[in-house]
Design goal:
single chain; 2 domains; 482 residues; six-stranded mixed β-sheet; Aldehyde Dehydrogenase, Chain A, domain 1; Aldehyde Dehydrogenase, Chain A, domain 2; 15 helices; alpha/beta; seven-stranded mixed β-sheet; binds ligand TXE
Amino acid sequence: MDPVLNYIDGAFMAAQSGETLNTVNPATGDVITTLPRSSSKDVETATTAALRASSKWAATSMVERIQWLHRLADALEEDHETIARLESMDTGKPISLARRVDASRSVANFRFFAEFGEQHEEPTFSDHGAVNHVHRSPIGCVGLITPWNLPLYLLTWKVAPALLMGNTIVAKPSELSPLTAHHLANVMQRIGLPKGVFNLVHGLGPEVGQAIVEHPQIRGISFTGGTSTGKIVAATAAPMFKKISLELGGKNATVVLDDAPLDEIMDDLVRASFTNSGQVCLCGSRVLVDSSIYEDFKGRFVKAVGKIVIGDPTEESTTMGTVISKDHQQKVESYIRLGVEEGGKVLIGGTSSEAPVDNVPSEGAFLRPTVLEGLSHTARTATEEIFGPVVTLHSFDNEDEAVAMANATEYGLAGSVWTNDTQRGHAFGQRLDTGIVWVNTWLNRDLRTPFGGVKQSGVGREGGAWSLNFFSELTNICVLQP
Ligand code: TXE
C-alpha cells in the first residue's frame, strides 16, 4: 500500500524530517504501510497554510459550506466499502462493524451537519426598545486530535461542524490508525476543497499533538482520547485561553433492574458490553444486576457472550476481531489478571494464553470476551478504564445501592438502565452522574443531542448546536430600534 502522507496546503508530503512510523494490521501483525513521523516543523507548515486559507474560507457563505459538506458526504458514500476495508485493516475490527458503524457514521456526520446548518437560525432577543442579534463567526484555525477506536467516525464528527462554522483545520489522527484520515484527505483533494482549509499532520501524540495544542495561532482544540492525555492537553491549552473540548475515557455502568425483560435484552447487553472489542468509550464495562435476578441473568448473559464469533476481521461471519495492538492486548490482559488477584472469578474468556482464539495468527491481538464476577464494585478492575472486551458483574439489593455503585468511579460518560417500566428507567437515569443515559437501548444516537461526560470523562459537549457553539465565537449585537 502507498505510504500515508501529510496533507498540507492541498498537497501530500512526507514529514520534513523524512522520518516514518509503521502502521500495523492488528489481526496479522503485518506492517500495512508507513506514515510520517512529523514534528512541530510540520505542524508549523500546516498551521501557516490553514491561516493563509482562513479569511477566504471564513468569507464563504453558510450555503457554500453546506454544499461542501454534502459533497464530502456524497464522496464518502461512494467510497463506503473502501473506507470500511481500510478501517477494518487498520484497527482489527470486523468488516461488518466497520461498514455498519465507522463508514456509515462518517457519511452521516457530514450529512447531518449540512442539514443541521440548513435548518439553523440564530436567535434574536428584543427588550428595552432594542433587538439583540447573535452573530456567529469562526474561531479561525482549530486543532482536531482523535483516537484509534473509531478513527474516521470521530474525526469527521469534528471536521464537519468545524468546516460548517468557517474554521480551517489542522488535524492529527492516532498514529495507530491513520489510513482513513489519509483517505479523507484524498477525498478533500479529489472534490477540490480549497487548499489549506483542511490539513492533516500524522505522527506521535507528544510530538505532533502537543505541537498543535501549544501552537499560539490554533485557537481551539477538540480532543478525543484517554483521560491521562486529556489532562496534558488541558494543562497546555488552559493558560493560553484556547477553546477546548475534551471527550475522554469512561467506565460505564449497565444497570439491570428487577423487572428487566431478560428474554428481550440479552443481545443488546452483549452489544453494549463488547462492540468493537469493548473499545468504545460508551461501552458498558460494569453490569450491575438486581440480586433477585442475578443468577438467572448471569446464566443468560454468559450464554449470549458465548455466541460472539471471534476471528478474522475480514470474514463476514466475524462479530469480534482484535483489539488495536499487541501492546493494548497486554494492557487488557493485565486487567484480567488483576481481576482475579482482586478476588474475581472468570465466568467466560480469559487471557490469550488461558483462552486462546482458534485459527488466528499468534501475531494477532485477539482476546476472547471476558466476564468476571465476585469483585467489589470499588475494586481497581471495576473502577479503572480497561477499554477492552472485559466486563465485571455485580449485584445490588435496591435502586439506591445501584445508583451508589454506578456513580462510584471517577468517570461520568454514559450509562444504561434496563427495566419493563420506562418511567422508572427515566427517573433512575436522572440519578446517574453521567453525560448520557440510555433506557432500554444502547448507542441510540440522535446527533442533535449533547454528547460528552462529566468528572474524568471530559469537558464540554459535542453534537448539534453544542458543536456549532464550540466551533464558533458569538457576538451579541444590540440595536436600539428607532
Ligand atoms: O488515546 P490517547 P489512545 C482511552 C482508552 C484508551 C486510552 C488510550 O482508555 O486505552 O484512551 O487510547 C494523541 N498531546 N480512550 O491511545 O493516547 C494521540 O496521538 C496531544 C477513550 O487512542 O489519548 C491520539 O491521536 N495529543 C477515548 C490522541 O491523542 C496527544 C477513545 C488520543 O490518544 C498526546 C480512545 C499529547 N501529549 C481511547 N499524547 C474515547 N473517550 O472515546 C497522545 N496524543
